[in-house]
Amino acid sequence: MCKYFTTFRKGFSLIEVVMFIVIVAISFVMLVFVFRNANAFATKGDLITQMSQLALHRMETIRAHSFNVLDEWDEVSTTHGSITVTSYVYYVDPATDLETEVLGPTSMKRIVIQATSPEVDPITISTLYGQWIETIP
Hints:
Blueprint: H1 3-6, H2 14-63, E1 76-80, E2 83-92, E3 108-117, E4 120-130
Antiparallel strand pairs: 1-2, 2-3, 3-4
């Protein structure tokens, strides 16, 4: 038998070391991309949360007013950094359709709040606000 094949050599060859370095370098580059994208997703999530909170705050502010002064909030926009919050108030007919705007006074109004930002899709929330007239027998 040949002495070359029967001798146990200790250590690594140059090819093994180069392959290890290449694999580690590729893995490092992949990890950098993963962490960079994770930061972008976290930032987007924070922005969506902030948009939702601003929209809900506007809704609570409007609903704290009486039925007759809600129209003052129609098409009111405010900007908070890159977020724009716009409110719409319109009459709806409770007998037919609670989504479609109608002319003239009815006993119900729809309040729609839209929060927009260039980085994410808009968030829209809406509710109905009614003026109930009690009849005295």
